[in-house]
């Protein structure tokens, strides 16, 4: 079976000793998640953090946009090109998945609203409760506990997009547009070791009352790998329907 050509737009490059030097980067974490499945992808990494954005949508069969500690509300060297890329994907109905920063960027590019949460950072393991289903969401789950680490949140969906899931602290935690766009505010690619390291290194930025609940939540079992299976099936279905 021919491998799906997946383009990963990396919007983060952690240069810290504590995190960046101790763990693989965002694109590799997603590769590890996908490589645990039976299906295999052919990967191309775009260092979008440095301004690299695909020019020709036919370079790949599908694309995804990673998370980032950067705020989608700020102007970055890649912002305009990324927004244009997302709109081109939408117009061409190119399969596109976004996680965390990617989820927010897709919403913003298509006319939605992203705002900084008045409650500050949302960190730990949190359940996404799915209100709607799509054919690619197999195995069937009504809830998926996954790692989260964000301060910004989508507060209004773009026209034509539909809410799929919410968490206790984030009403719009997952959405879709037709059969070609799928998003999550969560980090299905995180491991407990990585999440613990990130939490430890950024704990001072989290309000004191939120630190213990964040650490306590890491005792739960998370199911990011299920979201990974959904994403693979999403790409396959979108390519078939495109």
Which labels suit this protein?
242 residues, alpha/beta, single chain, nine-stranded mixed sheet, Rossmann fold, two-stranded antiparallel sheet
Write up what this structure looks like.
The chain has 242 residues and is of the alpha/beta class. The protein has a single domain, classed as 3-Layer(aba) Sandwich (Rossmann fold). Helices cover 30% and strands 27% of the residues. The chain is built from 6 helices and 11 strands. The strands form 2 sheets. The protein has a 9-stranded mixed beta sheet, with helices on both faces. A hairpin with a 3-residue loop joins strand 10 (170-177) and strand 11. Helix 2 (79-92) packs across helix 3. The protein is globular and about 45 Å long. The two termini are 19 Å apart. The relative contact order is 0.17. The mean pLDDT is 93.
Helical residue percent?
25-40%
Could you say what the CATH topology is called?
Rossmann fold
Please tell me how large the radius of gyration is: 17 Å
What count of structural domains?
1
**Spatial order of strands in the largest sheet:** 2-1-3-4-11-10-9-6-7
| CATH architecture descriptor text | 3-Layer(aba) Sandwich
In percent terms, what proportion of residues is strand? Answer: 25-35%
- Mean of residue pLDDT values: 93
The biggest beta sheet is recorded as: 9 strands, mixed
Task: Summarize the entry for a quick read.
The chain has a single domain, classed as 3-Layer(aba) Sandwich (Rossmann fold).
